[in-house]
């Protein structure tokens, strides 16, 4: 069973629906025992880093999550969930979990696209991920596949953790992590078949572990 | 670099498509869930559902459709038509929609845009604008006026001013529909599309007038739209989504070619 971490951050049901479609058992939960007994945790979320951190710490979920990761529980952070794994966000200057060193930064309105026109913010729509370092989550996914993004802040992790990049006004890190702990800025649950493949690859990893 | 999006729009009434959709083999399909799934499999980048009537009873039917669609398609989809309160928005989002489109309700009560963006995030809030070309005047300097109720009522609001205003209020996207071009199949209203796209930083979806894939290329190049809405040209089987994408790709437009 995969646990979808419930910390009142946006719509968690879309991840649940995608897992149901893949026949992967899952539960939306904030119960520490359920998180502990799960085979892996998905940390989703849409919204602002500050209020998400408040919700996490009010329920002491920040502590549980850190403990579980230390014990080797597989985890996948999506969108806001990916940003919160880092040390801090420039969104309301929020201190975040600090599981992986790095921060989140806002797209500068001065950035331009390849034709020199200013970029739209948020970065919303389908974009490519260049996978730079082998990652089991991308196994079986063609290199040029596109994924669905919606965000105004982008992750800047310690370069040692970089897995994939995406180009939007600049090249930013859209996938990062290490074995068993991955984070992605895009929404695999809304990215058609390559996105669903990432979710099933994550589950396969959890089962093998 | 972002791909330009192709977004089929389905008009739904009483849980059924208002016009049948013809796929190869000329079979009419009235079921919005099945049609959405087919467009998803054919590479649609997003899907829009528009609730044509939207009385309270019909809205419940629509929400059941949204739930069924959400279980089958794994790309973003939005719901519009008759949404006028935070409660309407919440219900559609909980049923599985990604985005909510507000149109007439936003003109009558612009506060709904800010309230929706605050409650659910700007990325959820699409403002639909129906626009009619008029002679330029002091109140409507751009020469484009906002109309509501499906184009039946003039508002005296300048479309360019309104576009900037909805962006300021927190809209995440604008769906720009030209009443003049709608249904003509002569192409999108490119002057209008470019005017709006050049003056806001949020994405603009061009709507109304698509007759062939070349029109979609024009909308995202000359019109500078981020996406093109299509309806009848795919519903009636004249063109397919993969065919349109191939055409655009060969014309040098970046579109999502693998799905």
Describe the 3D structure.
The complex is a heterodimer of chains A (209) and B (259). With 209 residues, chain A is an alpha/beta fold. Chain A is 27% helix and 29% strand. Chain A has one domain: 3-Layer(aba) Sandwich (Rossmann fold), CATH 3.40.50.880. Chain A has six helices and 13 strands. Chain A has an eight-stranded mixed beta sheet with strand order 2-1-3-4-13-12-11-8. In chain A, α1 links the parallel β1 and β2 (26-29). The two termini of chain A are 13 Å apart. The mean pLDDT of chain A is 90. Chain B has one domain (5-250): TIM Barrel (Alpha-Beta Barrel), CATH 3.20.20. Chain B has helices at residues 32-41, 56-70, 86-95, 104-108, 111-120, 159-169, 190-199, 213-220, 232-235, 241-250; strands at 5-13, 16-17, 21-23, 27-29, 47-51, 77-80, 99-102, 125-133, 144-148, 153-158, 173-178, 204-207, 227-230. Chain B is α/β, with parallel strands linked by helices and 259 residues long. In chain B, the strands form two sheets. Chain B has an eight-stranded parallel beta barrel, surrounded by seven helices. Chain B is 36% helix and 25% strand. Chain B starts with a strand and ends in a 9-residue tail after the last helix. In chain B, α1 (32-41) runs parallel beside α2 (56-70) and α8 (213-220) packs across α10 (241-250). Classes of the chains: A alpha/beta (209), B alpha/beta (259).
Average residue pLDDT of chain B = 92
Shape of chain B: globular
Helix content of chain A: 25-40%
Q: Please describe the biggest sheet of chain A, giving its number of strands, its sense, and whether it closes into a barrel.
A: 8 strands, mixed
β-sheet strand percentage of chain B = 15-25%
Radius of gyration of chain A: 16 Å
Number of helices of chain A: 6
Contiguous uncertain segments of 5+ residues of chain A: none
Helix/strand order of chain B: EEEEHEHEHEHHEEEHEHEHEHH
User: Helix and strand string of chain A, N-terminal first?
Assistant: EHEHEHHEHEEEEEEEEEH
CATH-defined architecture of chain A: 3-Layer(aba) Sandwich
The name of the CATH superfamily of chain B reads Aldolase class I
Mean pLDDT of chain A: 90
In the sheet with the most strands of chain B, the strands line up as 1-5-6-7-8-11-12-13
Helix content of chain B: 25-40%
CATH class of chain A: Alpha Beta
């Amino acid at each position: 069973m995969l646990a979808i971490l419930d910390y009142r951050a946006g719509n968690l049901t879309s991840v649940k629906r995608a897992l149901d479609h893949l026949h992967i058992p899952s539960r939306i939960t904030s119960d520490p025992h359920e998180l502990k007994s799960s085979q892996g945790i998905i940390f989703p979320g849409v919204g602002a880093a500050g209020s998400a951190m408040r919700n996490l710490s009010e329920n002491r979920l920040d502590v549980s999550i850190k403990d579980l990761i230390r014990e080797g529980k597989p985890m996948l952070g999506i969108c806001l969930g990916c940003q919160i794994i880092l040390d801090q966000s420039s969104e309301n200057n929020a201190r975040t979990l600090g599981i992986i060193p790095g921060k989140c930064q806002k797209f500068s309105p001065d950035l331009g696209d390849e034709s020199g026109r200013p970029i739209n913010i948020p970065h919303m729509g389908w974009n490519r991920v260049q996978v730079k370092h082998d990652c089991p989550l991308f196994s079986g996914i063609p290199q040029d596949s596109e994924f669905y993004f919606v965000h105004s802040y982008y992750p800047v992790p310690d370069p040692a953790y970089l897995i994939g990049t995406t180009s939007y006004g600049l090249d930013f890190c859209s996938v990062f992590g290490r074995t068993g702990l991955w984070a992605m800025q895009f929404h695999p649950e809304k990215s058609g078949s390559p996105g669903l493949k990432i979710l099933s690859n994550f589950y396969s990893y959890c089962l093998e572990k | 670099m972002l791909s330009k999006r192709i977004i089929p729009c389905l008009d739904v009434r009483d849980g059924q498509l208002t016009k049948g959709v013809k796929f190869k083999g000329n079979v009419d399909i009235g079921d919005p869930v099945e049609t959405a799934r087919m467009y998803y499999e054919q590479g649609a980048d997003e899907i829009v559902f528009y609730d044509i009537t939207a009385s309270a009873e019909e809205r419940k039917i629509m929400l059941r459709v949204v739930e069924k669609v959400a279980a089958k398609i794994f790309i973003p989809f939005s719901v519009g038509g008759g949404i006028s309160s935070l409660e309407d928005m919440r219900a559609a989002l909980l049923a599985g929609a990604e985005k909510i489109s507000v149109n007439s309700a936003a003109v009558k009560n612009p506060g709904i845009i800010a309230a929706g963006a605050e409650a659910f995030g700007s990325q959820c809030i699409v403002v639909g604008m129906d626009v009619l070309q008029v002679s330029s005047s002091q109140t409507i300097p751009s020469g484009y006026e906002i109309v509501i109720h499906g184009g039946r009522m003039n508002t005296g609001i300048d479309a360019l001013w309104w576009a900037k205003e909805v962006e300021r209020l927190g809209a995440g996207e604008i769906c720009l529909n030209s009443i003049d071009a709608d249904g003509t199949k002569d192409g999108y209203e490119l002057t209008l599309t470019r005017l709006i796209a050049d003056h806001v930083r949020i994405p603009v979806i061009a709507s109304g007038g698509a007759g062939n894939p070349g029109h979609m290329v024009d909308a995202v190049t000359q019109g500078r739209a981020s996406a093109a809405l299509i309806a009848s040209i795919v519903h009636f089987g004249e063109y397919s989504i993969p065919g349109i994408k191939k055409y655009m790709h060969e014309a040098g437009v970046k579109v999502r070619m693998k799905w």
